[in-house]
Amino acid sequence: MKKRIVVVLALGLMIAAIVCLAIRQPAEITVSPEWLQAAEGLDEITISAKLNAEERSLSVQQTLHLQNRTGQKQDAAVLRTWPNAFQNLDTSPCAAEEGIMAACYPAGFSSGALLMVQAEANGQSVLYRYTDDAKTVLKVPVPGGWQDGETIELKLTYTIQMPQMAYRFGVWEEIWAIGNAFAIPAVWEDGAFRTDAYAPVGDPFVSDCANYTVTVTVPKGYVCAASAKAASVENHVYSYRAFAVRDFALVISPGFKTAQTVQNGVQITAYAADAAQAKELLKYGRKALETYSEAFGSYPYPSYSLAQVSFPHGGMEYPGLSMISTDLLAEGGRELEYAVAHETAHQWWYAAVGSDGWNQPWQDEALCEFSLLEYAEKHYGPSERNDLEQRRMETALRVTVPQGITPGAPLSYFPSMSMYKLVVYDRGAACLCALDRTVPLDGFLRDYYQNYAFRRAMRADFEQQLFESTGEDLTPLMRDYLDTNILN
Ligand SMILES: [Zn+2]
């Protein structure tokens, strides 16, 4: 009897020791070979930014090594400088709707801008110019021309003036939302550079993947959330290396508390003013990451950050980073969980697999809503999935909307955020539900991710992949849902 107790005790101690070791062993962050391969040969963009809290600005020095991939000689490089849209009420994306305007500018209008100080191309100072009224399309001439295949070096010095506002770009309640703030190369498509406006609805940004090296200097005590994991933090300087990303975003605050874990080789960090909220955010972030990694294929980056931002839009996605609203965090529970699940799905549908957010916004938004249904079913069962589908998608099909406004319409067709959401998110997802009832989409989604990660998929690519993966021509069904008016 005594012997048995000793054996049981010894065994117990051994198990306890193994468990302790397992807990103490730091989980390792792993880097996927696909990701490194995707980064090869991409444009290199280096940003050095300093945050000036008093002036509410960032001083930036940026170097871009850009290859001419247009198939023809160019006389200039074209960059997008989105902060300039915030200079005045005529071009601000938040001024089109009264309710949105009041929510985004709680203290009244505040101007934001990207103020260029100097531009150099291949070592020569050049006279740049803007080609649109909002000054979001910057043309930087290349002396002697830019041959096809040639790589040029651009050096820009500028100041980002942050507006005082609650948005994806702005400072509010001591949180700096630095989304679409830095200059990025315009996309070349069908013989021209894309020059879309900063539309008041949706996420009007189209970009290709590039490699970013970023350093950010912040005042003492400021905490940075970013599109990459910090390689080092020394003397208030955060250094990052982000491969194969469409943009580089940051959220910075002196008030952030963090919660962090490593799961399946990915470092996941949540940032919020309240430590308990950061914990809850982390819980949902890791759950969503695990769910979609299983369903669609491994998460593409070595880190994922979720950060609190004061804005009225629920959430906003960037590569490796999701912004989540203060209101949702305060609400917590299922609403927050589903918002995190939607935003996290964007890491697959927008960040990895790029699409045309201006002309076919359903291609990522509806797919993220559909991914949310899969998430809901996995964690809460088929009845929750059905309920959610009824609440969001089926209801949306019954609302009357003006002629011509269909899920397949471009951003310019939508008069309000609410109509945009109803049609593009919910009716768009109803289309995917209909497809899924015809042929389950699981295999297609895996193929679509596998074949288009780090590229941009057009609607035709989506349709072609759907045909290849399912063996069925589903384009008539898609046209029915995406391009046809419903007569209620
Ligand atoms: Zn979305």
Can you walk me through this structure?
The chain is α+β, with helices and mostly antiparallel strands and 488 residues long. It has helices at 2-24, 33-39, 98-104, 275-296, 326-331, 333-345, 362-380, 382-398, 417-438, 442-452, 459-470, 475-483, and strands spanning 44-52, 57-67, 74-80, 113-121, 124-125, 129-130, 137-146, 151-161, 169-172, 175-178, 184-185, 188-189, 192-193, 210-217, 223-226, 230-234, 237-245, 250-253, 257-263, 266-272, 303-309, 315-318, 321-325. The strands form five sheets. It has an eight-stranded mixed β-sheet with strand order 5-4-8-2-1-14-17-16. The protein is globular and about 60 Å long. Mean pLDDT is 94; it is low at 17-25. The protein binds zinc ion (ZN). Residues 342, 346, 365, 368 line the site of zinc ion (ZN).
Poorly predicted ranges? 17-25
Q: What's the architecture of the largest domain, going by CATH? A: Sandwich
Instruction: Compute the number of helices.
Output: 12
CATH topology of the largest domain: Immunoglobulin-like
Distinct bound molecules:
zinc ion
Give the strand order, joined by hyphens, for the main sheet. Answer: 5-4-8-2-1-14-17-16
List the helices and strands and how they pair.
Layout: H1 2-24, H2 33-39, E1 44-52, E2 57-67, E3 74-80, H3 98-104, E4 113-121, E5 124-125, E6 129-130, E7 137-146, E8 151-161, E9 169-172, E10 175-178, E11 184-185, E12 188-189, E13 192-193, E14 210-217, E15 223-226, E16 230-234, E17 237-245, E18 250-253, E19 257-263, E20 266-272, H4 275-296, E21 303-309, E22 315-318, E23 321-325, H5 326-331, H6 333-345, H7 362-380, H8 382-398, H9 417-438, H10 442-452, H11 459-470, H12 475-483
Helix pairs in contact: 4-6, 6-7, 7-8, 7-9, 8-9, 9-12, 10-11
